[in-house]
Amino acid sequence: MKKQDKNHLGEIKMKRKYYAVKKGKKPGIYRSWEECRAQVSGFSGACYKSFLSEEEALAFLQDDENQEMESDENTMTAYVDGSFDKNKKAFSYGMVILFQGKETYFAEKYTDPALASMRNVAGEIMGAQAAMSYAVKQGCKKLMIYYDYEGIQKWCSGEWKANKEGTKAYRAFYEEKKKVLQMKFIKVKGHSNDKYNDMADMLAKSALGIGDGSFLWKAGNQWVRQLTDKG
């Protein structure tokens, strides 16, 4: 065999992918598409992805371990949502924290031009990051994040590739926080009369000055709820 041919075969071998099967007949890492396909073909809800390194493939599978997390009395729960004002080119997040029998409300507005192009998704990301930071600050070891935009979980799990600077930064932020915090993501349907999701949505709008008056700014990024006859 010619040296050139050997080099070519070596390059092909080096570029062989790692196929991580998260949901399939037998989850795991496979070195060929044929092996991977055998595990996902005909499997309802199959979830898999290819990577150039084994480390990335393992990280993709290990993220699922958090989804098995069981909550206890020391688990913090966060509902997050985002909003966008096209006239002001501003975005915001709203967050409701449920912890040790108390409800706490947060919201904040941003005008970063680089992130504003992502509209309300930028707010969703900032909300998820705010939840992670707050949980760590409070010394929590477990956090459940309720969200309504699927990228909030999928950029972290690796199911969606982070292409933009904002999503790359979010993925890196998550990777750093998961070293000290176990997290579980739970999707809720937006605008479906879910009490706390609706509250997070209104908090995000309030931060942009387009809320309904049910929340008032307190200090920093903290807000207070105006109780009504309806509660």
List the strand order in the largest sheet: 8-7-4-5-6-10-9
CA radius of gyration is 21 Å
Please estimate the helix content.
Answer: 25-40%
**What is the average per-residue confidence, as pLDDT, rounded to a whole number?**
88
Structure classification: alpha+beta
**Gap between N and C termini, in Å?**
80 Å
Order of helices and strands: HEEHEHEEEHHEHHEHEE
Number of strands: 10
Biggest sheet overview: 7 strands, mixed
Tally of contiguous helical segments = 8
| Assembly category | single chain
Describe the 3D structure.
The chain has about 230 residues and is an alpha+beta fold. Helix content is about 40%, strand content about 30%. It contains eight helices and ten strands. The chain has helices at about 5-15, 35-40, 55-65, 115, 120-135, 150-155, 165-175, 195-205, and strands spanning about 20-25, 30, 45-50, 75-85, 90-100, 100-110, 140-145, 180-185, 215-220, 220-225. A seven-stranded mixed β-sheet has the order 8-7-4-5-6-10-9. A hairpin with a 2-residue loop joins strand 9 and strand 10 (about 220-225). Helix 5 (about 120-135) packs parallel to helix 7. The longest helix has 18 residues, at about 120-135. The chain is elongated and about 60 Å long. The protein starts with a helix and ends in a 6-residue tail after the last strand.
Features:
231 residues, alpha+beta, three-stranded antiparallel sheet, 38% helix, 28% strand, elongated
